[in-house]
C-alpha cells in the first residue's frame, strides 16, 4: 500500500474551505464535490478567481481516490464553475456574461439531469431501437392510441403511481394538450361548462374556448379547491367535467391532502361529474397522497405526460380511462384531429421505459430539480406551496404587481410567468411562477435567480417618492 505524504501546512490552510466538501450530501462523491463548489460560490465561501487546491492535495485532504476528484473537477468545469489555467492550476470561474441572451424562467420543462450524457443516451437508444425494429415500420403509419406493446409500457410507467393499470384502458397520446382536447370532445358538448380552479394551467382554458365550451372556476383556499364551493358550482352550472391538477399544482405548487381529495370525489360523484386528473408532477412530490384515480378509478380519467418528467421532445402522454366505453369515446375523439403519436420518438420512449432508462433519467431529473429548489430557496427566500418539482410560486411584495415585475424582469433579460397568465377570475394572487428547468446550466440559473432577487428587492413605491 502506498504511504500518503503529509499535506504541506500552507497547502492545508489554502484547502481548509474544502474540508466539508463531501459532508451531508447524497449521490456519488464526485457529484457531491460539484454541489459543494456550487453552494460555496453562492454563499461566498469560495470567490471567483480563488485558486482551488491541486487535485492530488484535495484527494489526500478528503481521503478519496484521485479519480473521484478528477471526475468532480471535469463536471464542475463542464458546468462553468471552475476553469483551468495551465500550469497555474485550477481557479473558481467568474460568472459568465450573458450579454443579450434571455434566461427563460417561464417555461415549465424538466431540468437536464446532471451526470447523464443526453447525446450518448440518444445515440445508444436510437441504435438499439434500430437493432430491434424495422426502420420502415418506424417511418409509416401506426395504430392511433398506441399498439398493445405501447400501452403495456405505459402501464408499466404508471405502476408506481396507480398500481396495476389495465393496458386495455390506456391511450397513448401525442402530448397532454392533445389528450385534454380529446377528453373535452368525448365527454362534453358545445356550450357545456368545464370546472377548474381559478389559477390553472393555461392550456385548459385555451382548449375549452377553442372547442366551444365554457370554463367556470371554483373557489379555493391555501390547500386547493373547496368541496362546498364545488358543490355550489355543480348546482349552478350543471357541469359535466371537472379538471384538477392535485399534486404540485401548476402554477401554485400546492398539493391536495388525501382528505380533501376524498371530499372532492364525493361531491363530484353526487353530481355525476367526470374528473380529469392531470398529474404530471406526482413523482416529484415527497409523500404525495394517492392519485384520485387510485381512490376512485371508475370516476377519474388520469393523465400523465413524459414532457414534465423526462423531456418535452418525446411528446408522449398516457391517459387511463374508467372503462372500455370511455376508452372507445376518447380514442375516437383523439383520432379526429391526431391520427397517432410520432412513431420514432414514441418507440424510443417505450424502449426507455422497458429498459429502465426512463427511470434512470427521471431519478436524475428529480435530483437536479431538488438541487435547483434548494438554490432558489437560498437566493429568493421561501415560496408558496411545496418546495418540490420543477417550478415555484413566488408571492410578490406589495410594491410589485405581477405584470410590472414580469416587464421589469424582461428588461433584465429574464422571462417569468405572471399570475395573470393563469388567472381565470377570482385568483386573487399577486405572484409569479418561476420555472427552474428550461435553463440547462445550473450556474446560469443561479446567476439569473440572483438578478431576479436583486430586482425583487427594489421598492418602487419608495423610488416614486424621490423628488429631484
TrEMBL record:
Coiled-coil annotated residue ranges, if any: none
Domain HTH gntR-type: 27-95
Assigned keywords, A-Z: DNA-binding, Pyridoxal phosphate, Transcription, Transcription regulation
Keyword field contains Transferase: no
CDD domains hit by this protein: AAT_like
GO terms for MF: DNA binding; DNA-binding transcription factor activity; pyridoxal phosphate binding
InterPro entries named among the record's database cross-references: Aminotransferase_I/II_large, HTH_trans_reg/aminotransferase, PyrdxlP-dep_Trfase, PyrdxlP-dep_Trfase_major, PyrdxlP-dep_Trfase_small, Tscrpt_reg_HTH_GntR, WH-like_DNA-bd_sf, WH_DNA-bd_sf
Keyword check for Transmembrane helix: no
Xref: SMART domains: HTH_GNTR
PROSITE patterns (UniProt xref): HTH_GNTR
Family: In the C-terminal section; belongs to the class-I pyridoxal-phosphate-dependent aminotransferase family.
Name of the protein in its database record: GntR family transcriptional regulator
Provenance organism: Paraburkholderia eburnea
Amino acid at each position: 500500500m502506498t504511504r500518503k505524504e503529509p499535506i504541506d501546512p500552507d497547502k492545508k490552510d489554502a484547502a481548509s474551505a474544502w474540508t466539508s466538501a463531501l459532508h451531508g450530501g447524497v449521490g456519488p462523491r464526485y457529484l457531491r464535490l460539484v454541489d459543494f463548489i456550487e453552494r460555496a460560490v453562492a454563499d461566498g465561501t469560495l470567490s471567483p478567481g480563488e485558486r482551488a487546491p491541486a487535485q492530488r492535495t484535495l484527494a489526500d485532504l478528503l481521503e478519496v481516490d484521485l479519480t473521484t476528484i478528477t471526475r468532480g473537477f471535469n463536471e464542475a468545469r463542464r458546468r462553468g464553475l471552475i476553469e483551468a489555467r495551465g500550469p497555474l492550476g485550477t481557479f473558481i470561474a467568474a460568472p459568465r456574461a450573458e450579454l443579450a441572451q434571455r434566461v427563460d424562467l417561464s417555461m415549465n420543462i424538466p431540468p437536464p439531469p446532471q451526470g447523464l450524457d443526453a447525446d450518448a443516451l440518444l445515440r445508444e437508444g436510437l441504435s438499439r431501437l434500430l437493432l430491434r425494429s424495422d426502420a420502415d415500420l418506424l417511418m409509416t403509419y401506426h395504430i392511433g392510441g398506441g399498439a398493445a406493446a405501447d400501452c403495456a409500457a405505459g402501464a408499466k410507467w404508471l405502476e408506481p403511481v396507480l398500481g396495476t393499470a389495465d393496458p386495455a384502458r390506456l391511450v397513448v397520446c401525442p402530448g397532454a394538450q392533445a389528450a385534454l382536447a380529446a377528453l373535452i370532445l368525448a365527454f362534453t358538448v358545445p356550450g357545456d361548462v368545464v370546472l377548474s380552479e381559478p389559477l390553472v394551467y393555461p392550456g385548459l382554458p385555451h382548449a375549452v374556448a377553442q372547442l366551444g365550451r365554457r370554463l367556470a372556476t371554483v373557489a379555493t383556499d391555501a390547500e386547493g379547491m373547496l368541496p362546498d364551493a364545488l358543490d355550489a358550482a355543480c348546482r349552478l352550472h350543471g357541469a359535466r367535467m371537472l379538471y384538477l391538477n392535485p399534486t404540485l399544482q401548476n402554477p401554485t405548487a400546492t398539493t391536495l391532502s388525501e382528505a380533501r381529495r376524498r371530499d372532492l370525489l364525493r361531491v363530484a360523484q353526487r353530481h355525476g361529474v367526470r374528473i380529469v386528473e392531470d398529474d404530471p408532477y406526482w413523482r416529484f412530490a415527497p409523500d404525495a397522497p394517492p392519485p384520485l384515480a387510485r381512490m376512485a378509478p371508475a370516476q377519474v380519467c388520469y393523465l400523465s405526460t413524459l414532457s414534465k418528467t423526462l423531456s418535452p421532445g418525446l411528446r408522449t402522454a398516457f391517459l387511463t380511462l374508467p372503462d372500455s366505453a370511455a376508452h372507445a369515446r376518447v380514442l375516437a375523439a383523439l383520432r379526429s384531429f391526431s391520427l397517432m403519436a410520432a412513431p420514432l420518438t414514441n418507440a424510443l420512449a417505450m424502449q426507455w421505459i422497458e429498459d429502465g432508462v426512463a427511470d434512470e433519467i427521471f431519478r436524475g431529473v428529480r435530483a437536479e430539480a431538488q438541487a435547483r429548489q434548494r438554490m432558489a430557496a437560498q437566493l429568493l427566500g421561501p415560496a408558496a406551496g411545496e418546495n418540490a418539482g420543477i417550478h415555484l410560486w413566488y408571492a410578490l411584495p406589495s410594491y410589485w404587481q405581477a405584470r410590472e415585475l414580469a416587464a421589469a424582469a424582461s428588461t433584465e433579460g429574464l422571462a417569468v410567468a405572471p399570475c395573470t397568465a393563469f388567472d381565470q377570475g377570482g385568483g386573487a394572487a399577486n405572484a409569479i411562477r418561476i420555472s427552474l428547468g428550461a435553463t440547462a446550466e445550473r450556474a446560469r440559473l443561479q446567476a439569473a435567480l440572483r438578478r431576479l432577487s436583486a430586482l425583487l428587492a427594489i421598492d418602487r413605491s419608495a423610488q416614486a417618492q424621490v423628488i429631484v
